[in-house]
Amino acid sequence: MSQSNSNNDSSGNGDTPPTSSTGQRNESTNMVQGLSDTAQTIGASLQAMQTVLVGNMQQAAQMTLSMNKMMEELVKRSLQISVFADKPSNSTESSVYRIKLRVAASNKSPIPLQSAHVKLWFWPQQELGEGNIQMKVASIQKDGANMTFEETIGELPEKYDDETPFIQTLSGVCVASGATTEAELELEIDKLQQLNGCIALEFSSPGTGQQLSVSHRFGIHLLQFADCFFARDQSALEDAELATVSGTLPVTVDIARMRTLFRVPPVDGIDIGCLLVIRTHEILFALRVAAVLPGARTATCEWLATKRTAESDSQELMQRLVEELSTLENNLGQACQK
């Protein structure tokens, strides 16, 4: 009996010891949890590093973009494209209206321009009405010219169209830093007309390769197509018979301006009776000085014209000439910027 009870006590009161498999599971769970925590920490660190890296890259890209824009603006401000106008010596002997244009591209930036292009547009200042105007523009070839334009013949466009320049350079133009590149053109039209013009210098950005341009608009005036000169009296005009144009008002002109525009010799004065002549192959006008006040800067003139000119539709033409005489700069050499 006592042995039986002893066995029962032994089996009922003793604790079951932990098995080795249970301990291994606990260790695995702890290890997995540790690895998970480590992975989360590493992931958070990588994400933070990525955020910082992306931010730095965006900041660097923005700085690069800003620097490129600053450089582009510097280059554009350092470029100048100009047009100068001059009458050929035989402008009144031709059956068309002809003018020389000198195109100059100056680069004052420290960056040379490569493969730039120059484009020109022309259109009338007034509506043409009936009929069209034929125009021809071609390069005047010179040895060693860096800027050469294609010859273009066609109708004068009625208005400005950014997509279709009338004439442009044949190939890329190089303008070195601190240099000026020039070209001469000859423009012909078959009817006397005031012209608007636009010139553009197009080039690639040295930083981004994006197409950039600098441009300005200018005007070509009636007086720039005509031969304007000074005559002491009508005898200097050979066989031209001039008469007062009826229905016209006196014109007041600035004496200093007229001396330059009409090439009055320094030894000559603008006195009563002298003539300021405007002549083309089709028309001949003259402003005859009628009055000059002592010490005044202006003179009062009256219109004279040949019979053929007076019989033509000359009133509108004279009005345009008066406007040009009042507003043009003293130097007719440069096509006026607008």
What are the SSEs and their pairings?
Layout lengths: L1 H12 L6 H58 L1 E8 L10 E11 L5 E12 L9 E6 L12 E4 L11 E2 L4 E3 L4 E10 L5 E10 L6 E10 L1 H4 L1 E5 L10 E3 L6 E4 H7 L13 E5 L4 E9 L5 E9 H5 L3 H13 L8 E2 L1
Antiparallel strand pairs: 1-2, 2-8, 3-6, 3-7, 3-9, 4-5, 4-8, 9-10, 10-17, 11-14, 12-16, 13-16, 14-15, 15-16
Describe this structure in words.
The protein folds into three domains: 41-77; 78-220, Immunoglobulin-like (Sandwich), CATH 2.60.40; 227-331, no CATH class. It contains six helices and 17 strands. The chain has helices at residues 2-13, 20-77, 222-225, 255-261, 307-311, 315-327; strands at 79-86, 97-107, 113-124, 134-139, 152-155, 167-168, 173-175, 180-189, 195-204, 211-220, 227-231, 242-244, 251-254, 275-279, 284-292, 298-306, 336-337. Strands 3, 6, 7, 9, 10 and 17 form a six-stranded antiparallel β-sheet that branches. Strands 11, 12, 13, 14, 15 and 16 form a six-stranded antiparallel β-sheet that branches. The chain starts with a helix and ends with a strand. Residues 1-12 and 330-334 have low confidence and may be disordered.
Q: Residue share in helices?
A: 25-40%
Structural class: alpha+beta
Contiguous helical run count? 6
What best-fitting shape do the alpha-carbon axes yield? Answer: elongated
How many separate structural domains? 3
Mean pLDDT: 83
CATH superfamily (homologous) name of the largest domain: Immunoglobulins
The CATH class of the largest domain, by name, is Mainly Beta
H-E string: HHEEEEEEEEEEHEEEHEEEHHE
Main sheet: strands, sense, barrel: 6 strands, antiparallel
Rg, alpha carbons: 42 Å
What's the total number of strands?
Answer: 17
Could you give the distance between the termini? 131 Å
Low-pLDDT stretches? 1-12, 330-334
CATH architecture of the largest domain: Sandwich
Provide the CATH topology of the largest domain.
Immunoglobulin-like
Q: What percent strand? A: 25-35%
Coiled coil: 311-338
Keywords: Coiled coil
Region (Disordered): 1-28
Biased composition (Polar residues): 16-28
